[in-house]
Amino acid sequence: MNLSDAPVHEAALAIEAVHLGKAYRPNASPAARLRAALLGREIPGDSFWALRDVSLQVRKGESLGLIGNNGAGKSTLLQLLCGTVTPTTGTVRVDGRVAALLELGAGFNPDFSGRDNVLLNGPLLGLGRAQLLEQMDSIIEFSGIGHFIDQPVKTYSSGMFVRLAFALATSVEPDILVIDEALSVGDGGFARKSFDRILAMKERGTTILFCSHSLYQIEAFCDRVLWLHEGKAMAVGPSHAVVRDYTLFLAGGSPEVPAPGAPVAVPSAEESAAPLSAPVAAPPADPEAPAPVATPVTQPGTATPGHARIRRVVTSLDGVASTRLQMTPGQGTLRVSIEFDSDPGIPMPTAGMTFELANTMILSSVVSRTDKVMLERDAQGRGTATIEFGPLALRKGDYYIGAYLGNENAIHLYSEAARIALLSVTDPRPEPGLVDLPHTWRVEPGHVED
Ligand SMILES: Nc1ncnc2c1ncn2[C@@H]1O[C@H](COP(=O)(O)OP(=O)(O)OP(=O)(O)O)[C@@H](O)[C@H]1O
């Protein structure tokens, strides 16, 4: 595991953490916590280390991804870096103003108007009153709240609330942007707008810390990645290398000795995004039994401004459309047609599809951008992308087909139709395995070295 990194001159660092640790006393009563806080003493009882001895340097302008299982300590590290939690051990030095997209609008008072909440919460985000007054019009404009800005925020829809909180948090260019889970917030066109704002900040050299379960997004967006496991740093380094180690760990189960040649699970971008199209069928309790496929969804109407979405997915084998496809190895032509609607004003979206196993591992995926295919659409923004596979080298098993629609660089997910169809392959051969790999045999009498 690579934990070493070349030392960087202090002035070039946005963040430096040295032996950072955070211990909690999970069983301490509120009274014991209060007593300890008043007396400035340790809370008695066993410590639980949410984060242990993490040393880290983040260069200015760098995008660092945080990955790890649930409870690995990712949020704790972000909170320590933002200064909302105090460290138990070690130190953290942050150079510049931090904007955190962690709990958007958490400090908003529901009885106050949007305008008053901006003025009250701005200082907590490090923004001065004069700056806020100067930025007020652009905050209102970006959030799209309009005249509701002078209404109490309790009258806002959840979308309006998030839009205003995001517009506030990102109104003045931060030096460091901390993102927990979602690269875009809100829905429809605002998700695209918020993603564009984050991307523009990255391009202008803002340091970004991005924590996500979507390894696809992490790898596409971040320069380097820190992998945490049970509070400890397992590896830090180039995104592709750390994501590869982590996926090997997920597949093989051992953080120290990844199983050589173990299948690699690369969860796709949709994991962290809200489903916009078809409902996702839960994996079955019995891993042997295929889960039901999601019902295909046909969505009437057109995409909202700034947005794109999957309208319908049609899967067929040898021209026969079905969501339950049966084949034997090497036979049939599989077609997956993704019909989409888009705002014709946004850049051309990217389409993709996955073959997913029952245990949520992605066996294979196809992305139009990677294949250098530009989608096409009419003046209304409507288009269809069809992926055609000749005889598939799949062996016996059940493979869920999922379809995805992302933005032009395939990082921001507009719409997904996960598990939209089930492809069942029956194979009379007894050999185990998922795919047939191209190979040849050569046979001869005697031993090669003779
Ligand atoms: N205030 C707290 N008191 C006690 N334990 C806590 C507290 N905050 C976090 N923990 C514990 O610390 C551990 C790390 O939590 P953390 O939220 O940092 O993990 P995470 O990697 O962000 O997980 P997830 O991916 O599920 O969000 C967890 O076991 C969590 O239960």
Automatic annotation (TrEMBL):
Biased composition (Low complexity): 291-305
Descriptive protein name: ABC transporter ATP-binding protein
Naturally occurring in which organism (per UniProt): Ramlibacter lithotrophicus
GO cellular component, one term: membrane
GO molecular function: ABC-type transporter activity; ATP binding; ATP hydrolysis activity
Entry-linked InterPro entries: AAA+_ATPase (IPR003593), ABC_transporter-like_ATP-bd (IPR003439), ABC_transporter-like_CS (IPR017871), ABC_transpr_TagH-like (IPR015860), Bact_Polysacc_Export_ATP-bd (IPR050683), P-loop_NTPase (IPR027417), Wzt_C (IPR029439)
Domain ABC transporter, residue spans: 34-255
A Pfam family matched in the record: ABC_tran
Region (Disordered) location: 275-306
Pro residues bias (residue ranges): 281-290
Keywords per UniProt: ATP-binding, Cell membrane, Membrane, Nucleotide-binding, Transport
Family the UniProt entry places it in: Belongs to the ABC transporter superfamily.
